[in-house]
Amino acid sequence: MAQDFRLPDLGEGLPEAELVQWLVAVGDTVALNQTIAEVETAKAVVELPSPHAGTVTALHAAPGDVVAVGSVLISFDTGAATAPTPAPDATAESSAAEAAASDAPSAAAAPASEPNLVGYGAAPRSAARPQRRARVAGRVAAASDTAVLEAAPHDAIQFADVVERAVERPRSTPPVRKLAKQLGVDLALVEATGASGVITRADVEAYAERVGAVPAAPVAAESAEPVEAFELPRSEDASARTTRTPIRGVRRMTAEAMVRSAFTAPHVTTFLTVDVTATSELIASLRADRALHEHRIGIMAVAAKAVCLALARHPGLNSKWDEAAGEIVEHHYVNLGIAAATGRGLVVPNIRDAQELTLVELADAIRGLAETARSGRTAPADMMGGTFSITNVGVFGVDAGTPIINPGEAGILALGAVRRQPWEHRGEIALRDVMTLALSFDHRLVDGEQGSRFLVDVADILREPGRAMLLR
């Protein structure tokens, strides 16, 4: 029975999404809820599960295509599908048919194996695992090269196991696949150490160190592998004087959001340079504490805590202009957006109810958001519902800037670089740690006095972290 799968609304109300990559091909047999593709929308890469079990009969889009919600994405034949086998003689065929008919009830009663996520490695071994076409025969031959096996004697990998694992792409993320390519590591030979079965950067690096893998040598253009899934395709003119990159995916989403914000909310930016030596000393003491060694508390975490405390005193900075309802919505919670620069563009996931978190918990949350964003796995829901944002331009060596407010929020704070420089301290000139804070706010919601008082409160906490003990 033929079935079409149309691109669903992924819960963001967006009319379209870009197809990043297919994880199946025409002729593949897929299981229910098996991941079949990755699409990018609202600055996030989302995995699409299969709504049907059957054989893929057609792919209606290519990687890089922008597909409208509701358009047919993939077609299936949901009838009983089996892997092709050599044609037997008439007698054998008849016997096989009778045997299949007699075994049908027991086969139907057998428990289904765990779905295999195509493109992310093999499912647990069983006789019922989905079969794939012979289109990977070349990869099997490469993986079964005796030289490869001899290069990894400590892995104790049997020849048959190598061939079986090479038939399907190992489970990993695009950044990990890129790292493996750079180190010259074949992911088919890497064993995942985590319970999820996904190969991590640590797995690849450990394997490369163990077998002495070296970075892959550059290859000729005509034999180069396809570009990484997150890289936008580019085209050059005949004279190679220009390069054209399609405006889509993260870049397009970011541009649309920033233009909408810049031309809707009247931006005002105020600056304040502050002595943060006491905060630097606090961070140094916390990092020296062996009990907190793994938490990596930094200036961003302290600033996040200061913002949460200051927002409680200045709720206008934690509000929203609802044009449709004709209302100003004041939030009694803080969903703190953390701007993260990634290879695909800027994303701003937020920490839910950040006002409830301790300094250590904020540090862990910021680190987790950054790692998820860099791997391209930030969920769309994590970038919605923010109430205030922070961006740290200081990590790039920048002293200050005029950040654009994230749509739907009232303000954003930019942290500049912390610099050791001469500064007046207790009536004398001394070397101090100094940084510049830049606050952009929506002048419809916040006037100059409110914005300035909020910025001073944040600066006072960074100047004297002990002041946080006086706030509630």
TrEMBL record:
Domain of life the protein comes from: Bacteria
Positions of the UniProt region annotated as Disordered: 83-115
Cited Pfam families: 2-oxoacid_dh, Biotin_lipoyl, E3_binding
Cofactor needs: (R)-lipoate
Acyltransferase in keyword set: yes
InterPro entries the UniProt entry points to: 2-oxoA_DH_lipoyl-BS, 2-oxoacid_DH_actylTfrase, 2-oxoacid_DH_E2_comp, Biotin_lipoyl, CAT-like_dom_sf, E3-bd_dom_sf, PSBD, Single_hybrid_motif
Keyword set, alphabetical order: Acyltransferase, Lipoyl, Transferase
GO molecular function annotations of the record: acyltransferase activity
Domain Lipoyl-binding: 2-77
Domain Peripheral subunit-binding (PSBD) residue range list: 171-208
Class of the enzyme per the UniProt entry, highest EC level: transferase
Similarity comment: family membership: Belongs to the 2-oxoacid dehydrogenase family.
Annotated protein name in UniProt: Dihydrolipoamide acetyltransferase component of pyruvate dehydrogenase complex
